[in-house]
Amino acid sequence: MYSMYQCVNKIPIYVIVCICFFISMTGYSFKFNSNNYIHRSFGDSLKLDINKISAYALDGDIPSALNLLKDKDTSLLSVRDKMIKRNFENRFLYVTDRSGYLESKKSEIDDVLKIFSDYWRSSFLNPKLKNDSLLAVGVKKYLVEKSPLPVSFNQLQNDDTLNAYFIKYINTKGLKTTGVGKTGKFYDLLVWREQSDTVYNFQIHDETISVNVVFMDKFVTLGWEEYATFGMLYPGGWANDKALYCVRSAYDLQSENFLVSYLAHEGRHYQDYKLFPKLSGADLEYRAKLTELSLAKTSLFGLIKFFITNANYSSDNSHQIANFCVIRDLSKELFASDFENDIAKWENTGAEKINDAAFKILKENTAELTKIGKDAEKFIKSGK
């Protein structure tokens, strides 16, 4: 099974946004804080462990997220927590999605988004079903019946042909897309209206990078992570071997969150695609996250807390695996422990020492991968 972010070398980074207040009872739309930064973790409420709920959702484990909401007395919850509980239950607890998701996403591709959102929901809640096969049939049937481009069902049996026709169809609507492919274990759908590009020249330690950055605007959908978390988390950008792609609305372009957690992170991917073209998604993320931690100052401890909360060595999601391995290896280096989850100990260690340790581990990883050469595929789960 091919992956959008692995097969075509696109590795997303995630944005966490803070919910300010509930706007629409039917559409469940939100107003977000004007300072929406990458990996900015909002504090847990007194009643709901929001960070844990969002971590489960980002891993596609909606049943576990719902379990954390179960038996909570709504009358004792804050306004925000009532909203989050109601949202999750309306979207995932009943036979059908009652959250008003499709109504809030009206566009030229309503039918396509319905196919994908039904697939996401079924995949989260009924993973034993042949959801991937059902999605493929649904997309092929839709293209044959609705696309202005002449195509037969047989022509779409090949994955590459299906992807090409799907992109062309979205383009006929005046929209742009990444195509049909997987993020983690689920097929994804990212669609936007506008984009512009510019060239960035910057340094990551002793490396100078010059790369085209494509800024994307006016998204119709940011995919299954956005759907699963009600927009609390979503891809902030990705990279391939030709350019970096950035969700412009996710960043203050002068902030450390953009310069480190986006530009340096994705710049690491851009370089690694050339150095280690077969490297796994988890290994690519491991190296990019170490790069962040080797440079971050003001956002450092927020990043570490996010990585700890969203660490899962057994996950199918490359981010969760990499989060675990980064904290594991830094814990060994700094604390002589297997996995340090006490954020106070990290804060007491100080930013400079953590920066230096992250860079040291990154350089050691580069040396080990260089010994293997361009055939290097997996290291952090098999070699450490």
Query: How confident is the prediction overall: mean pLDDT?
Result: 87
The proportion of residues forming helix, as a percent range, comes to: 40-55%
Residue fraction in strands: 15-25%
The count of helical stretches stands at 15
Radius of gyration, taken over Cα atoms and rounded to an integer in Å:
21 Å
Shape: globular
User: Which structural class is indicated by helix and strand composition?
Assistant: alpha+beta
List how many beta strands DSSP finds: 10
Runs with pLDDT <50, length 5+? 1-11, 16-44
Give an account of the 3D structure.
The chain is an alpha+beta fold and 384 residues long. It folds into two domains: 4-264, no CATH class; 276-372, no CATH class. It has helices at 4-7, 50-58, 62-69, 79-92, 101-104, 110-125, 131-146, 159-172, 224-229, 256-275, 281-295, 300-309, 318-335, 343-349, 351-372; strands spanning 13-16, 19-22, 30-32, 176-177, 181-183, 186-188, 190-204, 207-222, 233-239, 243-247. The strands form three sheets. The protein has a six-stranded mixed sheet. It is globular and about 60 Å long.
Question: Which labels suit this protein?
Answer:
10 strands; disordered N terminus; alpha+beta; 16% strand; 2 domains
